[in-house]
């Protein structure tokens, strides 16, 4: 979309020169808006779009899975039923609607080709998948989650989007506590989600979103959401989620100091160096961190699975076994009889982000995903040191959180997982802010030239 520098009158030139962030409308004309207010009115003013946005986030975070579980129950190897299929179809149509609606009112430019290419890889992998049917359905969901993320970012303000994520995570925490006391279940506390680890990760996402909103607006309610999500993360007993929560809280404090600039930035940099040194110490003394987390040296059997997974990666190292295809009853290789085969059936994933990527996509697909992650990190750092410091900081926290969780959990692979949708949305938001900043710079230069 070309940007035409049109300056029709001195009055308009003055208005454009002193505007904050701006919307970009067709034909490249810029109109000012008040920072962080008009976009919230725009989205919430259109009730259909707002409801679609809420439903998309609920769907992409697996919050709606409680409906199926409450009516039909669950068991090992359970296939999709009518409710699950209906919700997935509604999720796909919602993604299409958000994408269609937002592209009609496109206000900023960001690269959609690379993320959509990455999102297409799960679908493409059905060509060599050992279970192509499952790869197709899961890959289709993955593609539409990314498509919906594009529409959601274009349709809403970033602050509003994070506020909405925080609201959904907070309500999920409340619903999980209510479910625990009114409809208690045997086993681990998992709330309204399928597993305790999924619950813990959603709570981490709630902490991340609430930290962003607290930096932007301040207020006691954001502190309450942070406390609530942290408490529920502890209740889930997901050690990875608890550790990630504390990492985010610490890095958020360092980020606040860094964004203040001057001497505060120096202090933050020094504390960051100390933090990295502590992490290196714990990595070099793994038994110590296992004791701190209350885990055995095999991470509850994870390292046993890792050795098995590495062997299977070696059998298909280039393209992998196909998206979501390996850990299935339909794949006899995953169920080869051995001393640990029952564990493989129960856990049903590699419990390591990098190994799961290599298992499903091989070296080729893993390299593409890593390139996108690195690109998002570069964009986040540019935002943090440029036009959108708060978004940049939140994106850096998100990526670090993904890396921490990825040590013992598969991340960015499940289509209906909080980290998948947030990863793409935050990347789009950072690129959107950088593009808008460039447009404002060009507009300012054109205004100055016209005055001369």
Describe what you observe in this structure.
With 452 residues, the chain is mainly α. It has one domain. The protein is built from 18 helices and 2 strands. The protein has helices at residues 10-17, 38-45, 47-60, 65-72, 82-104, 113-124, 132-155, 158-182, 196-216, 220-236, 239-260, 262-284, 286-293, 302-315, 341-347, 353-384, 389-405, 418-451; strands spanning 22-24, 30-32. Strands 1-2 form a two-stranded antiparallel sheet. A hairpin with a 5-residue loop joins strand 1 and strand 2 (30-32). The model is unreliable at 1-41 and 337-345 (pLDDT under 50).
Model regions low in confidence, pLDDT < 50 over at least 5 residues? 1-41, 337-345
Helix tally equals 18
Tally of structural domains = 1
Order of helices and strands: HEEHHHHHHHHHHHHHHHHH
Q: Would you report the number of β strands? A: 2
**Could you give the distance between the termini?**
28 Å
Secondary structural class? mainly alpha
Q: How large is the radius of gyration?
A: 23 Å
Write down the overall geometry.
Answer: globular
Comma- or semicolon-separated keywords:
452 residues; globular; mainly alpha; disordered N terminus; two-stranded antiparallel ribbon; 18 helices
Secondary-structure blueprint:
Elements: H1 10-17, E1 22-24, E2 30-32, H2 38-45, H3 47-60, H4 65-72, H5 82-104, H6 113-124, H7 132-155, H8 158-182, H9 196-216, H10 220-236, H11 239-260, H12 262-284, H13 286-293, H14 302-315, H15 341-347, H16 353-384, H17 389-405, H18 418-451
Antiparallel strand pairs: 1-2
Helix pairs in contact: 1-18, 3-5, 3-7, 5-7, 6-7, 6-16, 7-18, 8-9, 8-10, 9-10, 9-11, 9-17, 11-12, 11-17, 14-16, 16-17, 16-18, 17-18
């Amino acid at each position: 979309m070309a940007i035409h520098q049109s300056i029709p009158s001195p009055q308009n030139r003055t208005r454009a020169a002193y505007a904050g962030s701006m919307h970009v409308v067709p034909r490249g004309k810029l109109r000012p808006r008040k920072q962080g207010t008009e976009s919230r009115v725009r989205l919430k003013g259109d009730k259909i779009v707002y409801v679609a946005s809420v439903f998309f986030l609920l769907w992409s975070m697996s919050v709606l899975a409680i409906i199926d579980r409450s009516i039909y129950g669950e068991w090992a190897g359970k296939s999709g039923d009518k409710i699950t299929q209906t919700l997935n179809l509604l999720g796909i149509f919602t993604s299409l609607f958000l994408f269609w609606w937002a592209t009609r009112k496109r206000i900023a430019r960001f690269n959609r080709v690379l993320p959509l290419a990455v999102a297409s890889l799960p679908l493409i992998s059905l060509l060599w998948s050992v279970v192509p049917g499952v790869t197709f359905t899961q890959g289709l969901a993955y593609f539409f989650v990314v498509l919906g993320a594009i529409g959601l970012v274009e349709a809403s303000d970033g602050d509003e989007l994070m506020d909405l994520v925080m609201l959904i995570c907070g309500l999920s925490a409340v619903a999980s506590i209510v479910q625990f006391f009114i409809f208690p279940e045997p086993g681990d506390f998992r709330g309204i989600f399928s597993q305790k680890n999924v619950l813990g990760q959603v709570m981490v996402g709630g902490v991340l979103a609430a930290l962003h909103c607290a930096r932007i607006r301040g207020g006691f309610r954001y502190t309450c959401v942070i406390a609530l999500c942290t408490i529920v993360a502890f209740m889930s007993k997901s050690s990875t989620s608890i550790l990630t929560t504390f990492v985010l809280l610490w890095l958020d404090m360092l980020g606040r100091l860094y964004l203040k600039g001057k001497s505060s930035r120096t202090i933050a940099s020094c504390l960051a160096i100390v933090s990295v040194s502590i992490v290196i110490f714990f990595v070099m003394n793994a038994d110590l961190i296992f004791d701190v987390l209350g885990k055995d040296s095999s991470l509850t059997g994870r390292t046993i699975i890792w050795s098995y997974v590495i062997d299977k990666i070696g059998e298909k190292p280039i393209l992998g076994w196909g998206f979501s295809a390996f850990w299935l009853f339909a794949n006899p290789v995953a169920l080869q009889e051995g001393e640990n085969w029952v564990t493989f059936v129960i856990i049903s994933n590699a419990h390591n982000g990098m190994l799961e990527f290599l298992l499903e996509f091989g070296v080729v697909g893993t390299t593409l995903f890593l390139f996108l992650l690195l690109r998002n990190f570069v964009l986040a750092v540019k935002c943090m040191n440029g036009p959108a410091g708060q978004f940049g900081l939140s994106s850096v926290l998100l990526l670090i959180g993904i890396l921490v969780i990825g040590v013992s959990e598969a991340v960015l692979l499940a289509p209906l997982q909080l980290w998948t949708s947030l990863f793409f949305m935050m990347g789009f938001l950072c690129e959107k802010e950088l593009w808008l900043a460039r447009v404002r710079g060009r507009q300012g230069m054109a205004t100055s030239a016209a005055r001369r």
